[in-house]
Amino acid sequence: MISGPVGSAAARVLMYFLLGKGLEVMLIAAAPGMIYTAATAWLFGKIFMRCRLERR
């Protein structure tokens, strides 16, 4: 749940250092995708945990 948004943010910071401008814009543009990734990862984690427990 955390690794996707953190990795995306780290990639944006690296691009900022390579290109030299626009960090805030890149992070703001990526924020909806990071939130979506975290939410769906949490949801699917719950679903898969339930499936795993039902299988036993």
Main attributes of the structure:
mainly alpha; 0% strand; 56 residues
User: How is the biggest beta sheet arranged?
Assistant: none
> What is the mean pLDDT?
92
**How many helical stretches?**
2
Instruction: State the separation between the terminal residues, measured CA to CA.
Output: 25 Å
Q: Which structural class should the secondary elements be placed in?
A: mainly alpha
Helix content: over 70%
What Rg is obtained from the alpha carbons, in whole angstroms?
16 Å
Please give the number of β-strands. Answer: 0
Portion of residues in beta strands equals under 5%
User: What are the segments in which pLDDT stays under 50 over at least 5 consecutive residues?
Assistant: none
Apparent shape: elongated
Listing every helix as H and every strand as E from the N terminus to the C terminus, the arrangement reads HH
